[in-house]
Design brief:
This protein is α/β, with parallel strands linked by helices. Helix content is 39%, strand content 21%. Bound molecules: 1,4-dihydronicotinamide adenine dinucleotide and magnesium ion (MG). Its cofactor is Mg(2+); Mn(2+).
Length: 365
């Protein structure tokens, strides 16, 4: 049977950008004999409007069964007044938690045509293609004890950086598997010089690395890593790091390349019975209520998220490259949604025109 995909468009521009992903999925079925069983359901505010909850139990069950979930974005001003327990983002959090998506993949990829958008010099970022793997379900955001406590005559705020060997091991394994699908180069970042969890992190990553002799493994203190990411990002291929450092380093890396409308992401969990990892793919951006319903949204982040699904869930690395190359071609031709317009101006294309141009480039590939 065909690999299965659950599409959760969500709110705001989510459905608009997802419609363009549907065109791409359909193209693969029609032109590359790569058909998917696609189902669609509600998440976020859209699910709340229908079910009174941001993710229905049946939708959660479906997400657990499919080979990959593609999510648009959730949220919007209409839902800001809701109780925390039914806020749109709770739908997203439930998916991440119940699917146990412990590895968050954030690429920083610079399309040459957009290199001028970077806050760095063009030659520092042109051709950049790196991937940060952030541990997502443990570390200092979750460790106990945590809280604000009375201590003598003042209060103390406490969070605990805590990592078990198995938590480090599964994140490391996800990163090595990725490195094997890319350029077999992995850099692990921690602060083993001042943190016990960092010492253990380095030890476990090194041990897992013995199972991947083809991957060139290096270690770097995370503060130096931040510096190196801005100084010479092309020295990296895959970076693996903990939840806190990964939060900061991935935001930093994202801005090496420019617009929010261009950034995809993936969150992976443990391998399922068929060997594929539990997986959810989504653009980094939100529901963009300021431009929703106007045909202005850039669908590329969402389409690149599908390219990641091709590569990391469906073992279709060549087809993922085909799609990325088609996007590169369209950008090189000067086709731009409004968020990609430079100061020199020009006429932006609409969301669906951008999707159509990408399909044309796929046809020509
Ligand atoms: P946002 O990412 O939705 O928008 C930030 C700015 O970037 C806006 O000016 C928007 O127009 C622009 N932008 C975002 N994506 C774009 C695209 N594809 N093409 C062109 N322009 C784009 O973040 P914001 O405004 O902070 O949040 C809006 C809503 O989205 C909130 O309800 C927030 O909670 C939710 N949100 C949801 C996320 C998710 O579903 N994963 C992530 C971040 C925010
Ligand atoms: Mg962040």
């Amino acid at each position: 049977s065909n690999p299965s995909i659950l599409i959760l468009p969500g709110d705001g521009i989510g459905p608009e950008v997802m419609a363009e992903v549907r065109k791409v999925i359909d193209w693969y079925g029609a032109k590359r004999d790569l058909a998917f069983d696609v189902s669609e359901d509600l998440v976020g505010g859209a699910a709340y409007d229908k079910h009174g909850v941001p993710l229905a139990d049946e939708t959660m069950a479906k997400a657990q069964e499919v080979d990959a979930v593609l999510l648009g974005a959730v949220g919007g001003p209409k839902y800001d007044v809701l109780d925390f327990s039914v806020k749109p983002e709770r739908g997203l959090l439930r998916l991440r938690k119940e699917m146990d998506l412990f590895a968050n993949l954030r690429p920083a990829q610079c399309f040459d045509a957009l290199a001028d958008f970077s806050s760095l010099k063009k030659d520092v970022v042109a051709g950049l293609d790196i991937m940060i793997v952030r541990e997502l379900t443990s570390g200092v955001y979750f460790g106990e004890p945590r809280g604000i406590f009375e201590e003598g005559n003042e209060r103390v705020g406490i969070n605990t950086q805590r990592y078990t060997e198995s938590e480090i091991e599964r994140a490391a394994r996800a990163a090595f598997e990725l490195a094997m699908k890319r350029n077999k180069k992995l850099c692990s970042m921690e602060k083993a010089n001042v943190m016990e969890s960092g010492i253990l992190w380095r030890e476990v990553v090194t041990r897992v690395g013995e199972e991947y002799p083809e991957v060139e493994l290096s270690h770097m203190y995370a503060d130096n890593g931040a510096m190196q990411l801005v100084r010479a990002p092309k020295q990296f291929d895959v970076i693996v790091t903990d939840n806190l450092f990964g939060d900061i380093l991935s935001d930093c890396a994202a801005m090496l390349t420019g617009s929010l409308g261009m950034l995809p992401s993936a969150s992976l969990g443990a391998p399922m019975a068929n060997g594929r990892p539990k997986a959810m793919y989504e653009p980094v951006h939100g529901s963009a209520p300021d431009i929703a319903g106007q045909g202005k949204a850039n669908p590329i982040a969402c389409i690149l998220s599908f390219a990641m699904a091709l590569r990391y869930s469906f073992d279709q690395g060549d087809e993922a490259t085909r799609l990325e190359t088609a996007i590169e071609k369209v950008l090189a031709d000067g086709v731009r949604t409004a968020d990609l317009m430079g100061p020199e101006g020009g006429t932006p294309v609409s969301t669906s025109e951008m999707g159509d141009k990408i399909i044309e480039a796929l046809d020509a590939s």
